[in-house]
Amino acid sequence: MSLQDITDRITKAESAAGRAEGSVQLIAVSKVQPNDRVEAVLEQGHRCFGENRVQEAAGKWPTFRERFPDVALHLIGPLQTNKARQAIELCDAIHSVDRPKLAKSLARLAQEMGTCPELFIQINTGEEDQKAGVFPADADTFIAECRGLDLPVRGLMCIPPVDEEPALHFALLARIAERNGLDGLSMGMSGDFESAITLGATHVRVGSAIFGARVRPQE
Ligand SMILES: *Cc1c(COP(=O)(O)O)cnc(C)c1O
């Protein structure tokens, strides 16, 4: 696969779903990829990237940004409150707001720093113990709490369980978003982004299908 293949497939999926061309944002997930692969995608003109660790993002993106200042960086992995300030400084969007303590910390920092990335609230649609995100039953309350803190809530994010049909989780996320008046949906990865687009994804997070298999495992 290449960047062009993926963007072609996104365009086809948008059109098949009766959605406007360009309505889906491709986040190229560059975590643990060698710099030359990331650079190749930058050279092809792509400017929206995802990382799942603040530390790793801080290690590589300031340098890339010297050459490609219009890069947008999305944090898609768990965020510890002690890294929240750094995340705000580095990132244009955070997809992993998943608990009141983090929401309050982001609100306080946003006030102090006079800026805040776009935020997505992560929903643990599969109610998995090992996964971050608020359970579907707690979603409405937490979304209201974030809005009460004046946070710029762009939408919702989910990572379906590996062994289940992702479409069921995408549909659930879309329902929760709709009843809360949100239209941003961060869902769909290399194996299932077309299905996510059919179900309303506005942001797809695609890593290995663009860059190739990750060279070393994440954890
Ligand atoms: C790694 C990662 C992705 C991309 O996964 P691929 O299967 O390589 O496309 C998407 N979302 C999150 C949250 C990730 O951590």
UniProtKB/TrEMBL annotation:
It comes from the Bacteria. Keywords: Pyridoxal phosphate. Residues 4-214 form the Alanine racemase N-terminal domain. Its cofactor is pyridoxal 5'-phosphate. GO terms for molecular function: pyridoxal phosphate binding. InterPro entries: Ala_racemase_N (IPR001608), PLP-binding_barrel (IPR029066), PyrdxlP_homeostasis (IPR011078). CDD domains: PLPDE_III_YBL036c_like (cd00635). Belongs to the pyridoxal phosphate-binding protein YggS/PROSC family. PANTHER family: PROLINE SYNTHETASE CO-TRANSCRIBED BACTERIAL HOMOLOG PROTEIN (PTHR10146), PYRIDOXAL PHOSPHATE HOMEOSTASIS PROTEIN (PTHR10146:SF14). This is Pyridoxal phosphate homeostasis protein. It comes from Ruegeria halocynthiae.
